[in-house]
């Protein structure tokens, strides 16, 4: 960093020493002006008198010119300023008096002006001794790269700010201010602190969806964003709009198992899916039951994917749940084998023993396929993994096996819902197609189903991030580039409510290189740390942070620290004298520099409802206004286009019936 760049960050002026030296300079100026005045007035007066001999002997001769002592003019004034002097003499003397008076005033004004200028310069001098924090001005906002430009058209909408512009009218010095929207279309991520009912929808989410021109994945909790923005994105931006609402009958379909590749990635893909299923809150596989349930889930999912006994339409999580529950498509075999068991056993034991028969079937058919020698390498690995998982279950005691089975089933109870089962039975889109063509995917979750559907949404987002960041391409110069033609915005409202998405936290540092940009919204800092702990890296990986007035002091303190500290001057006055005196004996003032937060925590919590803070890494904080889309005619016109056409609508009834049958 150069010296000039450091000066832009802060300025600490050097000591000015004893400022009383200004008084001595003032005295010097006074003396010089006074002496010069007397010299000029004396010589002028002598010239007016034609250097008459009665003026006295000169102090020196400069050629033919007589040079008099500077104070001689005072002698002449006392000598000739008499009533009996001639009018011409009185006129010269009065002129000399006027010139002396003017010189006296000048000798006072000049030093006073000098002292005032020097002390005023010291007062106005920038001093960042205790901090240099300040609100960004127009030039700094422009340097941050978030003002409207052709490069960031169609970016994420951040806020609104008034920028001064020169008036093109008759007065070139008059200035106006116009309101512009701050926007960002770069690869960096954005985090928003916005409490409930603070205007994040009308101020950030909806304006962004009405302007972002690339693909987007939206966590749409109430379906409002679909209703307000999907029509514009479909009809104007010409995007494919998908509404995945697992608990509703008018939803597009997505089968997580259809994203599992039947190649060398099979086991890896299945294990990733199994992890998300048995760890619905992102707390990790910490107990024995979760770990053994993960192993069982992996084996059954692989069996569902490669078994010849199942139709392609049955390769989904609903079938996995059915097999773990009562045998599902292999129920007849399970019932026949269970009939050979002890009929006197209790119901819990019967269920466990019946499922053991299913596991024996999976193990035996796996060994049979492996022994036949006709399997490809992928099939060999698949059947081997499924057989080993089945055998691992069979090796457990009855009570332990029953606990493992109950644990695995508890994570799949969601797929007993016929609507959810139908919406996850097949796929109307693939994950890679989201970036191969411009697509808007809305993950719609009614608030009443938020907790119930959380595991499925976590699974979808996890698969999206993993699949789209799996491979990086490089051009002929060796520079990295995304393998997809389009970027995608991950707009995740209530991000911490989804639980800890470990892959998301880890990948946030590098997904920008794959064409993914995150816009994450949380209510406050405590909600984020509750899901990701105080050692979270979400905040540090977000280049831009936006904050509305917080409700919690922890968030307010963080925002205050992010704003920084400034150096402020304050004046102290000391008064002395008797309480009964009419006037004070002495009044002294003392100006001091001290540190003050640019915005204290309580001031942060008292931000006006229309205001917000924007922090861009490496730049001064920006105090600006929220966007209110329904006050902007252009945005209202886009919003009035309503919702897009539903994909898959009209097919759901048949899917539900087939699931119930």
Protein model, in words:
With 661 residues, the protein is of the alpha/beta class. Among the domains are: 3-124, no CATH class; 255-418. The chain is built from 23 helices and 17 strands. The chain has helices at residues 3-9, 21-48, 72-80, 87-124, 138-143, 200-209, 224-235, 266-278, 288-306, 317-326, 331-338, 347-372, 377-394, 398-410, 418-423, 433-436, 450-468, 502-507, 525-532, 553-563, 601-605, 633-639, 652-660, and strands at 60-62, 65-67, 156-166, 175-184, 189-193, 215-220, 240-244, 439-444, 473-474, 480-481, 488-492, 516-522, 542-547, 565-576, 586-597, 611-616, 622-625. The strands form five sheets. It has a nine-stranded mixed β-sheet with strand order 7-8-6-11-12-5-13-16-17, with helices on both faces. β3 (156-166) and β4 (175-184) form a beta hairpin. α9 crosses α10 (317-326).
What proportion of the residues is helical, as a percent range? 40-55%
The helix-and-strand class reads alpha/beta
**Average of per-residue pLDDT values:** 83
Query: Which consecutive residue ranges, at least 5 long each, have pLDDT under 50?
Result: 1-7, 649-661
Please give the largest β-sheet.
9 strands, mixed
Q: Note the total helix count.
A: 23
Which percent band covers the strand fraction? 15-25%
Q: C-alpha Rg, in Å?
A: 42 Å
* Span between termini: 71 Å
Strand order of the largest sheet: 7-8-6-11-12-5-13-16-17
Shape: rod-shaped
Transmembrane segments: 22-47
GO cellular component, one term: plasma membrane
Family: Belongs to the VirD4/TraG family.
Keywords: Cell membrane, Membrane, Transmembrane, Transmembrane helix
């Amino acid at each position: 960093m150069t010296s000039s760049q450091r000066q832009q960050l802060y300025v600490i002026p050097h000591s000015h020493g004893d400022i009383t030296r200004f008084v001595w300079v003032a005295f010097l100026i006074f003396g010089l002006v006074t002496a010069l005045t007397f010299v000029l007035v004396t010589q002028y007066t002598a010239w007016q008198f034609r250097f008459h001999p009665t003026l006295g002997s000169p102090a020196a001769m400069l050629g033919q010119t007589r040079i008099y002592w500077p104070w001689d003019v005072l002698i002449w004034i006392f000598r000739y300023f008499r009533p009996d002097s001639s009018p011409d003499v009185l006129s010269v003397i009065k002129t000399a008096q006027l010139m002396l008076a003017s010189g006296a005033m000048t000798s006072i004004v000049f030093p006073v002006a000098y002292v005032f200028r020097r002390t005023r310069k010291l007062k106005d001098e920038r001093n960042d001794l205790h901090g240099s924090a300040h609100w960004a001005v127009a030039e700094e906002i422009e340097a941050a790269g978030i003002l409207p430009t052709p490069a960031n058209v169609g970016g994420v909408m951040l806020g609104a700010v008034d920028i001064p512009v020169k008036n093109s009218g008759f007065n070139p010095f008059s200035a106006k201010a116009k309101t512009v929207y701050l926007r960002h279309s770069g690869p960096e991520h954005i985090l928003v602190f916005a409490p409930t009912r603070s205007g994040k929808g009308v101020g950030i989410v909806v304006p962004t969806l009405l302007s972002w021109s690339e693909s987007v994945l939206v966590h749409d909790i109430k379906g409002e964003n679909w209703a307000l923005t999907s029509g514009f994105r479909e009809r104007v931006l010409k995007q494919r709009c998908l509404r995945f609402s697992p608990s509703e009958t008018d939803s597009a379909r997505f089968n997580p198992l259809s994203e599992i590749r039947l190649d060398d990635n099979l086991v890896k893909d299945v294990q990733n899916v199994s992890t998300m299923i048995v760890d619905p809150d992102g707390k990790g596989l910490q107990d024995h039951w979760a770990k053994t349930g993960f192993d069982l889930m992996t084996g059954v999912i692989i069996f569902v994917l490669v078994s010849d006994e199942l139709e392609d339409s049955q390769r989904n999580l609903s079938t996995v749940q059915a097999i773990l529950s009562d045998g599902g498509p292999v129920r007849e075999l399970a019932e026949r084998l269970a009939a050979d068991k002890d009929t006197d056993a209790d119901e819990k034991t019967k269920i466990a023993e019946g499922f053991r028969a299913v596991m024996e079937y999976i193990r035996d058919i796996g060994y049979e396929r492996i022994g036949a020698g006709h399997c490809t390498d992928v099939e060999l690995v698949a059947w081997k993994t499924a057989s080993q998982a089945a055998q691992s279950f069979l090796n457990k005691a009855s009570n332990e096996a029953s606990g493992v089975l109950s644990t695995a089933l508890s994570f799949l109870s969601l797929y007993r819902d016929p609507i959810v089962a139908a919406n996850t039975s097949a796929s109307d889109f693939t994950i890679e197609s989201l970036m191969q063509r411009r697509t808007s995917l809305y993950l719609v979750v009614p608030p009443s189903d938020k907790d119930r559907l959380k595991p499925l949404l976590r699974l979808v987002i996890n698969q999206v991030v993993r699949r789209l960041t799996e491979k990086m391409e490089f051009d002929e110069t060796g520079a990295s580039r995304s393998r997809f033609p389009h970027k995608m915005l991950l707009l995740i409202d209530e991000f911490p409510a989804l639980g800890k998405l470990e892959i998301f936290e880890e990948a946030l540092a590098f997904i920008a290189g794959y064409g993914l940009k995150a816009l994450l919204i949380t209510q406050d800092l405590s909600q984020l740390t509750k899901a990701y702990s105080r050692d979270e890296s979400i905040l540090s990986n977000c280049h831009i942070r936006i904050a509305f007035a917080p409700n919690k002091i922890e968030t307010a303190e963080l925002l205050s620290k992010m704003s920084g500290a400034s150096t402020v001057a304050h004046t102290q006055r000391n008064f002395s004298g008797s309480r009964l005196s009419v006037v004070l004996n002495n009044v002294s003032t003392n100006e001091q520099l001290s540190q003050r937060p640019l915005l204290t925590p309580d001031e942060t919590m008292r931000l006006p409802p229309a205001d917000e803070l924007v922090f861009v890494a490496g730049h001064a904080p920006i105090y600006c206004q929220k966007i209110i889309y329904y006050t902007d005619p252009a945005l209202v016109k886009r919003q009035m286009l309503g919702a897009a056409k539903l994909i898959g609508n009209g097919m759901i009834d048949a899917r539900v019936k087939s699931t119930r049958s």
